[in-house]
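Journal club prep — side note

Before the paper discussion, L.F. wants everyone to see what a predicted structure for a comparable chain looks like in token form. Sequence:
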Amino acid sequence: MPDSELTPLLQRIAEVLEKLHPDTSASPDFSIASAFVWNADQQQLTPVQQVNRVPIVLLKGIDQARDTLVENTTRFAKGFPANNALLWGARGTGKSSLVKAAHCAVNGTEENLILIEIHREDISSLSQLLPILRENGDFRFILFCDDLSFDGQDDTYKSLKALLEGGIEGRPENVVFYATSNRRHLMPRDMIENERSTAINPAEAVEEKVSLSDRFGLWLGFHNCDQDTYFEIIEGYVEEFGLEIEQAQLRAEAIEWSATRGARSGRVAWQFIQDLAGRLEKRIF
């Protein structure tokens, strides 16, 4: 085979081998972005230049949770002790939006704060990620897992328990863990009830399952909003994006929209705003 054909072939082989066994010895450059996604298969952190989030001022009806999380995040960014946080409650009530918005708000003044998203199915790979973060002591890292929960015989939660508390190395001083979940104890009720009915010592079995949530120092609860808060959320978006519509018409359409969805929440409000902006032919964000 002539060199002109051999060289491109060898290059393609090298690229395939690199994908199968990437070089993870080099630490990522955390100065190029304020957010990353952990790729467990390749053991790499991928930078995110444009994070999908809304300004924190547009998150209505969750004032206490917002203030608590921002205060905890600010302390952590400044190098002071801070708690892991579990944001739990009804779907679409702003849990993940608050985590991303709080990171943005705090990072505006403390530029060393990095948000890293890790998928629930990759929790077991934390043993590969944490050494990378530990080595970069100039930065502070929020590990963020959205929609965290465990089912059936899934024992991945044991890896997370070791991270949060109890492992021989412990959580790195420059790492804090934020998670969102629809479940307060991260386990479905039928899973807990099954433990009670089948275990030799039901109390101890249940304690083992729910002890993970106890590792979070902050429990922030989120609930479906009332109609006034629902209107407040929608009107905040209307003002932010300059959508021109009479208030009476806006509220009537918002009520009809929530009725078709069977719920009032921040997510329902945002979906209504997207529909409204589309009908008005108005770009948002």
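L.F.'s comment for the group: The beta strands are 35-39, 44-47, 85-89, 113-117, 140-145, 175-181, 218-222. Keep this in mind when we get to the figures.
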